[in-house]
Amino acid sequence: MALRARALYDFNSENPGEISVRENEMVTLYCEQDIEGWLEGVNSRGERGLFPASYVEILKSPAPSYGGAPDGYQGSRYANVPGAPYEPPYRSHVPPSYQPSQGSDDDWDDDWDDSSTVADDPGGVGGAYPDYDGNGPAAGMNYSVSTSSMPRGGSAPQAKSSATVGRNLNRFSTFVKSGGEAFVLGEASGFVKDGDKICVVTGQYGPEWQENPYPFACSIDDPTKQTKFKGMKSYMSYKLTPSHTQSQVHRRYKHFDWLYARLVEKFPVISVPHLPEKQATGRFEEDFISKRRKGLIWWMNHMTSHPVLARCDVFQHFLTCSSTDEKAWKQGKRKAEKDEMVGANFFLTISTPAAPLDLQDVESKIDGFKTFTKKMDDSVLQVNATLSEFARKQIAGFKKEYQKVGQSFKILSQAFELDQQAYSAGLNHAIAYTGDAYDAIGEYFADQSRHDVDPMLDLLALYQGHLANYPDIIHVQKGALTKVKESQKHAEEGKMERPQADGIRERCNIISFATLAEMQHFHQIRVRDFRAQMQQYLREQIGFFQKITSKLEDALRKYDSA
Amino acid sequence: MALRARALYDFNSENPGEISVRENEMVTLYCEQDIEGWLEGVNSRGERGLFPASYVEILKSPAPSYGGAPDGYQGSRYANVPGAPYEPPYRSHVPPSYQPSQGSDDDWDDDWDDSSTVADDPGGVGGAYPDYDGNGPAAGMNYSVSTSSMPRGGSAPQAKSSATVGRNLNRFSTFVKSGGEAFVLGEASGFVKDGDKICVVTGQYGPEWQENPYPFACSIDDPTKQTKFKGMKSYMSYKLTPSHTQSQVHRRYKHFDWLYARLVEKFPVISVPHLPEKQATGRFEEDFISKRRKGLIWWMNHMTSHPVLARCDVFQHFLTCSSTDEKAWKQGKRKAEKDEMVGANFFLTISTPAAPLDLQDVESKIDGFKTFTKKMDDSVLQVNATLSEFARKQIAGFKKEYQKVGQSFKILSQAFELDQQAYSAGLNHAIAYTGDAYDAIGEYFADQSRHDVDPMLDLLALYQGHLANYPDIIHVQKGALTKVKESQKHAEEGKMERPQADGIRERCNIISFATLAEMQHFHQIRVRDFRAQMQQYLREQIGFFQKITSKLEDALRKYDSA
User: In which residue ranges is the amino acid composition biased (Acidic residues) (chains A, B) (predicted)?
Assistant: First the structure.
C-alpha cells in the first residue's frame, strides 16, 4: 500500500518535473521521506512528479504500497514511526526555497527566484517584503545595479499614529517603509541586548562606525556543481572560509540572496552591498561562474569591511553555521526572520557620542554627499560604458587589426618562399615568425580585458549598487530632519509638548549620526577600493604591453640570423 | 625706347603671370635679360607677363624706351652690345623647363609637368619620348607605382627590316620599343667605348652584374623652398651629397624626373626605380616634403646600389655637376639626351661570361621569376593595404578608444574631487594623471605610424615600382627567346643562314645574361631591404609599446602616495 497525503495549499507547478496540487487534493507518495523539502508522488489526475513537502499533510492511514520502488523505504508504511532512521518530513513555516525543475538549463530560476523564501509563506511570519500597496508580501525583490530608486524593504508598522506631528501620507515613502518615520515619532520599541549595541564614535574625519574589534575576511572558492533528485536538479555550491573560524561552509546563491534580504530589512541607513546581478542563461558556463564568484568576492569584501554588517548575527550565522547541520541552519534562519530589531527598531540599537550634532551642519553635509553620489554615479556609469566598449573593441576590432597585420606578413613570407635562394630562407622564416607574433598579439588584445577591464567593471557594479542605495538612505535622514522642523514649529505654536519635540530631535540626531557614519565608511572604502583597483588595472596594462614588447623582441631576434 | 622681340612659335599661357604669344607677334620687353629662360613683356593685346625666352627672337633695332621702369637697364638701348655687363639671352634649344605661374599654390605643375624638357622642343634633339603611335615626342611620361603595364620609352629605330625572321607587327610591344627586337635581329650598331662596357659575371648564385668597384652613397637633405621671378614662383630644392665627391649639388624634382626618363630610355632590361609619386596639392606642406624626401632617399639608395645604374654617365652627371655651373649642366644634359648607347645599343655594351647559357634553363628561371614577382606583387599590395588601414585605425579608432578611456578616468577624478576629505586628494590626483596618461597614449597611437608603417609603405611603394617594371623586362627576354626559336626553325628549314641564326642565339644569350643578372640583383636588394625594414619596423613597434609601458608606470607610481 502506498502512502497518501492531502494537500494543504494550492501548488502550481511551474517547472518540468513538478506537478500541481489543489488544496485538499489527495496524492499518492512514492516515499514518505522528503528530499530537501520535496516529495515525489502522483496527483489525482495521474500526473507524477515533485511537489513541496510543506504543502501536504502525510496521512497516517496506509495506502496501497508502491510496488517496485528501488529505494529502501518501501517497507515503511508510515512516515513518522519512531525508530525510523530518517526524520519526518520537515514541516517548515516557509515553503520550499526554490522552484524545482528538471535539467540544468531550465532551472536557472532555481538559484534566483527564491527570494520568496519568506514572503510566499501563506501562514508564515510574513511582512518581509510588503509590496508598495502594503497589501502583503511581494514575491521576490527585484534589485538591479542600474536602478537608483530601488525600494528598500522594511517592517515598519503601518498602524495608527498618535503623534501630533503628522504622518507621511505617502505610504510608498522610504522614510515610512524603512521605519525611519516610526522611530523618529517615538513609536519604535524593543529590548536592546548589550550584544546588539551599535556605536557611532567621533573619529578623525567626523562620526564613524566603531571599528570591528575582531576584523576578519572570508574567501570564496570556485563553486562546484551539485546535483540532487538523482541528477534531475543541479546547482552551484560555493565554499566559504571565514578567516575567524577557518571552518568551511557551503552556500548557494539563494542563501546569499536570503541573507541580503534580511540585511536590507534590518538596516535602514546602511548601504548593503548588492549581490552580483542575475543571469538567465548559461548559469553553469565557466565564464559566468567565474564572473559571479568574483562579484561575490567583492560583495563579501564589502560585507566583512563594514563594521556593522560584518558583526551582525544573521551574517555570522550565514558564515559559520555548518552546511550539514540542517537543524542549526533552520534555527538560525528562523531567528533572523523573527528578528525584532529591524527597521525602526534598528535605530534603538545605536548609541552615539554625547554631544548632539548641529542639524544645519548635517543637512549641508548630506546635501554635499547627495551631489557627490549623483556625480559619482554619472561618472561610474561613463567609465563602465567606456571600458565595456573598450573591452569590446579590444576583443573584436583591435584583435582583428593586429591579426590582419600578422596575416599580411605571413602572405609576404609565403611569396618570398617562392624564391629558393639560400640567402633568403632566413628572412622568409623571420617574416613568417613576425606574422605569427602579430597573430598572437591579436589574441593578447582579445584576452586582455579579462585581466583589467573585467575586474574594474566588477568594482564599478558594486559601487553602482551602493550609489543606488544612497538616495533612500538620504531620504530617511531628510525625512527625519523635516520631522524635527515640523515639531519645532508645532512646539513654538504650542501644538506640541516641548519634551515630545525634543524627543524627535534626539532621535533625528541618532539617525543623523548613523547616516554620517555610513557616509564616512563609504568614502573610506571608496578610496581604498579605487586606489587598489586603479593600481591593479595599471599593473595589468603594464604587464600586457610588456608581453607584447617581449613577443616583438622575439620576432626581432629572428632577423639576427636571417 | 623699349626692346622688342618677335615670336618664333605660338606660346599658350597656361598659368597666371604668363601671356600668350602667336608666331610672328611683336612683343615689347621690359628687359632683354631672361631670368632662367623667361622674359617679361607686353604682347600686342597689351597683356603683360612672362613668356619663354626661347620662343622669341630679340630684335636689334631700337624700340621706344619703356619709361619709368625701375630697373637699371632702361638706359641700355641694345641688348647685345659688347661690354654690357649681362650676357645675351640664352637661346636654348629647349623650351623653358617649367610652366610659370604665380604664387606657390597654383604652380604645383612646375615641379611636375616639365618632363617635356626635351620632347616639346620643336627643333630640338627630340625622340626622347616617342608617343605610342611613334608620331613624335610625347609630352611627359606618366608613371605610377600602381601601374604594372607602364610603357617604357625607347629610341629603337622603326626602320626597315632585312632579316628573314619577321618583325613583330605589334608596334606597341615592349620588345620592339625597348630595342630588344632590333638588337636580337642584329640591327643595333654603335661604337662601344671601354668605359661604357658593362660586365655580367658568374657569381655564387649565377649570373650577376659585376660589382661597382667604387661604391658610394648619396645623402638627400631636407629641401629648401626657393623662389624666383621676385617671389612669383617657388620650388623645392634638394641638397644632394654623394659620398664619393663630398660636393653638394642642388637638384629639383624635375631634375630627378629628367634623369629618370634618360635611364628608362637607356636600359631596357634594368629595373629603374620609380620616383616617389606625384602629388597635386600641398606640395609645400611639411608632411609631403618629408614624405617625398624619404621616397627620394629610397630611390637614391636603389640607384647607388645598382652596379650598372650607379656608374652610368647621366647619373654621375646628375650627382656631380655643379648646380651653379649652368653651362656644364646643359652640356651634360645635351650629351645624355644625345647618347646613342640607349635601347637596342645598350645591349652592345654588355659583355658576358664565355660559356653560353642553356636557354631552356633560362626560360625556366624566367618563368619562376615571373611567378615570384606576381605573387610578391599581390602580397606587397596586401601588406600595403593592411598597413595603410592599420595606420588609419591607429590614427582614428585606436587613438579615440584610448582617449575615451582617459576621458572617463578624468571625469571620475572630477567626481571624486567633490569629496574634500584629505585622504582622498592623492587618489583624485592619481586618477586624473591616469586619465592624462591614456590621453597621451592615444596620441602615441596616432603618431606611431609615422615611425613604422610609413617607412614600410615607402619601401613597398619602391618595390611596387620594380614589380611593375618586371613584366616588360621579362617580355624583352621572352621576345628574344622566341626569335631564337623561330630562327632555329628557319635555319633547319633552310630559310635562314646558320651564321645568322647563331648570331640571334648569341645576342639572345646576352639579353638573357643581363636579365638573369638583373633578377639576381633584385633578389639581393629585396632580401637586404626587407630584412632591414622589418627590423626597423619591429624596433619602432617595440619602442612604441615601451613608451606606453613607461607612461603607465608613471601613472602607477602616482598611487604610491595616493
Answer: 104-114
Closest CA to B145 of B464, B473, B469, B385: B464
Looking only at the bridges linking them, the beta strands covering B350-351 and B198-203 are: parallel
| A561 in contact with B, Cβ within 8 Å | no
A527/B424 CB distance under 8 A: yes
Backbone φ and ψ for A139, nearest 5 degrees, come out as -85, 100
Q: What's the grid cell of residue B403?
A: 582617449
Under a CB-based contact definition with an 8 Å cutoff, are residues B223 and B239 in contact?
yes
Q: pLDDT tens across A89-101, in order?
A: 333 333 333 333 3
Beta bridge pairs of residue A40: A50
Q: Distances in Å between the alpha carbon of B321 and those of B219, B239, B255, B342, B504?
A: 16, 13, 12, 22, 40
Closest-CA residue in chain A for B557? Answer: A535
Asked whether residue B471 carries a pLDDT value surpassing 90, the answer given is yes
Rounding to the nearest 10 degrees, give the CA dihedral for residues A151, A152, A157, A161: -60
Cα separation, A29 vs A40, whole angstroms = 6
Cα B518 to Cα B305, B331, B528: the distances in Å are 12, 31, 15
Amino acid at B235: Y
Contact B205 A423 (CB under 8 A): yes
Note the pLDDT tens digit of each residue in A162-211.
444 566 555 557 787 788 888 988 888 888 887 788 999 999 999 999 99
Whether the CB of B559 is below 8 Å from some CB of chain A: the reply is yes
Contact criterion met (CB below 8 Å) for A158 and A134:
yes
Q: How far apart are CA A352 and CA A210, in angstroms?
A: 10
Which residues does chain B have within 8 Å of residue A430's beta carbon, measured at their own beta carbons? 531, 534
Reported ipTM exceeds the 0.90 cut: no
Residue A122: count other Cβ atoms within 10 Å of its Cβ: 12
Angle at B420 between CA B416 and CA B422, to 5 degrees: 105
Q: How many CB pairs under 8 A join A and B?
A: 177
Indicate the residue type of A45. Answer: R
B223 band by pLDDT with thresholds 50, 70 and 90? confident
Residue B292 annotated as part of some ligand binding site: yes
Q: For A3, which DSSP code?
A: E
Q: State the smallest CA–CA distance between residue B430 and chain A in angstroms.
A: 9
| A555 touches B at CB < 8 Å | yes
